[in-house]
Amino acid sequence: MAQFEGKNILVVGGTSGIGLELTHQLAAQGAAVWVASRNASGLPAGVNEIGLDVTGDVSALTAALPDVLHGLAYCPGTINLKPFTRLTDEDFSTDFQINVLGAIKVVRTVLPKLKKAGSGSIVFFSTVAARVGMNFHTSVATAKSALEGLTVSLAAELAANRVRVNAIAPSLTDTPLAGNLLSTPEKREASDKRHPLGRVGTPADIAGMALFLLSDQAAWLSGQIMHVDGGMSTLRSV
After folding, report:
1. Which of 29, 98, 137, 175 lies 20 to 30 Å (CA to CA) from residue 91?
2. DSSP label at 98?
3. CATH top-level class for 8-226?
């Protein structure tokens, strides 16, 4: 069943990893999809492309998108794992620019279109490291924690406009962004074993939750941080 028939969805950062998988799933479900990214390639037929750098001016979204937007998935992220003493001010600033300020600028730009939908949905992507302390994650965890704060505060503010705001907090997922962390069989095996369910995530695992949050099936769900993390945030092996 094409549950997104007649729905207009914007995926920012939809050309790789989770964003690309979500783009494929949305297109398969009948959505009209716009992908905004610095590099557009490998997109399904019929998907609309918008050149965009979230660290710069995003005002081009206004003219490039339809007047009514039913959903926004903001997928850009960073993995900059270093000991705290080796992280520079620039590292923290870059992570914040991409993960938080980029999201703020995009939402501010497209919010009038989301309000017109009558039941709009915004989906952000956080990380399990915002909840579980992990070595070398201070920069990205700081930025993603801010994004989680944005999620719940914005959800409260936009509830009267029937715009839902939720975030997904994955653990390590097999995407190009995480390539260095899974680059050898030994690294992959060690990463699998750290998860109670015995494996790292796949783009389909995370995109499936995003698809749900964007759909009408999640019409009574807002202000939530969904931990799709193989049990990492809550389970412990005995």
Report:
1. 175
2. I
3. alpha beta
Residue with tokens 């389909």: 204
Report d(CA 11, CA 15) in Å as an integer: 9
DSSP state letter for 224: -
Beta bridge partners of 34: 10, 48
Contact 81, 129 (CB under 8 A): no
Q: In the β-sheet with 32-37, what is the strand arrangement from edge to edge?
A: 48-51, 32-37, 8-12, 71-74, 120-125, 163-168, 225-226
- Distances 115 to 71, 72, 194 between C-alpha atoms, Å: 10, 12, 41
- The DSSP line for 20-88 is HHHHHHHHHTT-EEEEEESS--SPPTT-EEEE--TTS--THHHHHS-S---EEEE---------GGG--
Secondary element (H or E) of residue 226: strand 225-226
State the angle between helix axes of 203-214 and 17-28 in degrees (0 to 180), rounded to the nearest 10.
Answer: 50
Domain ranges in the chain are: 8-226
Enter the pTM of the model. Answer: 0.94
Residue 80 CA to residue 214 CA, distance in Å, equals: 28
Calpha distance 80→87 (Å, rounded): 9
Query: One-letter amino acid identity for 188?
Result: R
